[in-house]
Amino acid sequence: MTHRSPPSEPLVLRKGELEFRASPPELEVQVWDYHADPVHLSAQDLAQLGLIATEQRGTLPRSLVGPWREALRQGVAGRDHPAPSLSDETSSRALHLGGLAFLPVVEGLDVYVISYDSVPARLGLHHLTRLGLRYRDA
After folding, report:
1. b or e along 52-88 (b: 16 or more beta carbons within 10 Å of the residue's beta carbon)?
2. For the whole model, what pTM was predicted?
3. Distance between CA 47 and CA 95 in Å, rounded?
4. Model confidence at 110: pLDDT above 70
5. For the segment 62-93, what is each residue's pLDDT rounded down to a tens digit?
6. Residues 68/81, Cβ–Cβ less than 8 Å
7. What is the C-alpha to C-alpha distance for residues 66 and 63, in angstroms, rounded to an integer?
8. Burial grade of 100 (CB within 10 A; 0-12, 13-18, 19 or more)
């Protein structure tokens, strides 16, 4: 009789109203509120999900979401620091899937909620490749 190890639980990371579930070879993203603000996944956040960059990110744009989130944490955001939005240029560089826009940035990945969808977005291998990411153990 062969013994199979039980399936491992997916790695889960919650950022704001978005939940990221790492189930290699896919990354599933669930939006819990249709008014969700954009979120920033740092290199450390991506590592918690088992993801690493496949290329140098120095030529990518800097995150607009990370500094805005930091201002929120410090209680400074508001009229002086409105939530970042996708410009036409930025939107054209983003990967659009399931009502979300994924934008690779120097520091990691910015995720914008464009339209609410109760069905999780599933990023497959080709999506992750386009974002310059892969699973560490792949």
Report:
1. ebeeebeebeebbbbebbeeeeeeebeeeeeebebee
2. 0.88
3. 20
4. yes
5. 999 998 888 888 887 666 677 888 888 788 89
6. yes
7. 6
8. buried
The dihedral built from the CA positions of residue 9, 15, 18 and 20, taken in this order, carries a sign that is negative
Q: How far apart are CA 32 and CA 114, in angstroms?
A: 14
Taking the C-alpha atoms of residue 5 and residue 127, their distance in angstroms, rounded to an integer, is 29
Tell me which amino acid residue 75 is: G
The identity of residue 53, as a single letter, is A
Question: Does the pLDDT of residue 55 top 90, yes or no?
Answer: no
- CB-based contact 49:109 (threshold 8 Å): no
pLDDT of residue 79: 63
Span 86-109, average pLDDT: 91
Q: What count of other Cβ atoms lies within 10 Å of the Cβ of residue 124?
A: 11
